[in-house]
């Protein structure tokens, strides 16, 4: 199992400058490789340049411009070229799938925030001074950087990355953990129903409130973004305004992650089996198609786009996708079983008689079966049906 660890670094003033130069030079390499691919396709009979060809040119580039590119790790520069290769692979995959292609774009210095080192010991060294009471990570061209290691790294470190977030610097590790440490069995099973009014509801009827971090920060974000819009491009005031807006967004993201980690950890500790809805979040957030007026060319009918926009904003604020990814990772580490089931009609099916009807759910919260008269909270009914479907799938897989 591969686990990721993220630690705050505490570089000196000189190391901050060196780290910034490392990002700048890797960004220059990325943009130069992208420009080469564009020129080759446009001017030489649509020739496609691959990663292998660009990687072979690295030695010449490092020898020609040793001051900018020669002092950094060769492997990290190869990783930057692989990042561009993955961007083009995703571009062509979206074309074949009929989706919006999204051609790879040039990166500005402020939008290139990560440098990857594919192997610990090649251009970098995690815990480079093991006998030092302070943890340090060493990067070629930067030196030994102090790290605030708030938890132990379990397993063998495979990759190391440097990440800049605002004015802070982080080191991100991936470690291979061979032997897992499962939690003691509890014998409990649970189904969960994701929602907007409540973040989730369990099959036992417990509700986890939706913190709505984005909505709570909306007023402050609106003021900061209005101040940003009044600044002139390239000015010092605009740079400060951009920094403030980004800091507010990072705070909301951290709050959302913290909530997801805590809720997922409680579920994993208390249950051996967890069933959840297999939500297609991207489809749920799709915008409403316009409705042209057949009698008036150029005029469009009301299609509920404003209400759908508000719903999409609430779905994004809830962070279902992030939560489910964290839940699956924690469950795998703890030896728990997680199964995703089809969410269709889970909130319309009566758990007592099995009758399925849209009329069973007269309101958002209320469930009232029109066949047998069973009443309950709609989300609790959905979670119970999710659990039953998950248990059926589990039993079918073990046969």
Structure description:
The chain is built from twelve helices and 16 strands. Helix content is 44%, strand content 20%. A hairpin with a 6-residue loop joins strand 15 and strand 16 (375-377). It has a seven-stranded antiparallel sheet with strand order 2-6-7-1-5-4-3. The chain folds into two domains: 11-147, no CATH class; 189-398, Nucleotidyltransferase, domain 5 (2-Layer Sandwich). The mean pLDDT is 92. The chain has helices at residues 13-43, 51-56, 58-64, 66-70, 74-96, 213-216, 218-229, 236-270, 281-284, 305-318, 320-334, 378-398, and strands spanning 2-10, 114-117, 124-126, 136-139, 143-148, 156-165, 168-176, 189-194, 198-202, 207-209, 273-277, 291-292, 300-301, 337-341, 366-368, 375-377.
- Total helices: the number is 12
How large is the share of residues in beta strands?
15-25%
Q: Helicity level, as a percent range? A: 40-55%
CA(first)-CA(last) distance: 26 Å
Coarse structural class: alpha+beta
- CATH class bucket of the largest domain: Alpha Beta
Molecular shape: globular
Task: Note the run of SSEs as H and E.
Answer: EHHHHHEEEEEEEEEHHHEHEEHHEEEH
Poorly predicted regions are none
Keywords, separated by commas or semicolons:
2 domains; 399 residues; five-stranded mixed β-sheet; single chain; alpha+beta; 12 helices; Nucleotidyltransferase, domain 5
């Amino acid at each position: 199992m591969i686990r990721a660890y993220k630690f705050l670094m505490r570089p000196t003033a000189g190391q901050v400058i060196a780290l910034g130069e490392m990002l700048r030079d890797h960004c220059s390499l990325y943009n130069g490789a992208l420009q080469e691919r564009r020129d080759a396709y446009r001017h030489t009979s649509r020739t496609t340049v691959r990663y292998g060809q660009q990687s072979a040119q690295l030695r010449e580039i490092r020898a020609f411009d040793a001051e900018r590119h020669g002092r950094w790790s060769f492997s990290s520069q190869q990783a930057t070229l692989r990042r561009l290769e993955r961007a083009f692979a995703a571009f062509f995959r979206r074309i074949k799938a009929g989706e919006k292609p999204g051609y790879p774009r040039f990166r500005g210095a402020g939008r290139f925030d990560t440098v990857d080192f594919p192997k610990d010991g090649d251009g970098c060294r995690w815990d480079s001074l093991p006998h030092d009471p302070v943890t340090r990570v060493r990067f070629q061209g930067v030196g030994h950087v102090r790290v605030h290691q708030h938890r132990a790294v379990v397993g063998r470190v495979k990759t190391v990355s440097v990440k800049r977030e605002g004015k802070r610097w982080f080191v991100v590790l991936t470690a291979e953990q061979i032997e897992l440490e499962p939690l003691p069995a509890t014998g409990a099973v649970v189904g969960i129903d994701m929602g907007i009014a409540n973040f989730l509801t369990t099959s036992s009827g417990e509700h986890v409130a939706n913190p709505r971090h984005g909505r709570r920060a909306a007023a402050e974000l609106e003021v900061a973004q209005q101040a940003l819009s009044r600044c002139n491009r390239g000015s010092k005031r605009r740079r400060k305004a951009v920094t403030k807006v980004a800091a507010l967004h990072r705070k909301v993201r951290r709050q959302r992650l913290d909530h997801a980690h805590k809720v997922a950890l409680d579920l994993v500790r208390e249950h051996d089996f967890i069933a959840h809805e297999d939500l297609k979040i991207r489809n749920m957030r799709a915008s409403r198609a316009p409705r042209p007026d057949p009698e008036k060319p150029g005029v469009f009918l009301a299609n509920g786009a404003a209400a759908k926009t508000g719903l999409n904003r609430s779905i994004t604020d809830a962070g279902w996708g992030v939560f489910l990814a964290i839940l699956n990772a924690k469950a795998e580490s703890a030896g728990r079983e997680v199964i995703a089931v089809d969410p269709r009609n889970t909130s319309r099916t009566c758990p007592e008689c099995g009758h399925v009807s849209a009329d069973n759910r007269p309101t958002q919260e209320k469930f009232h079966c029109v066949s047998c008269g069973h009443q309950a909270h709609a989300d609790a009914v959905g979670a119970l049906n999710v659990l039953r479907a998950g248990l059926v799938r589990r039993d079918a897989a073990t046969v």
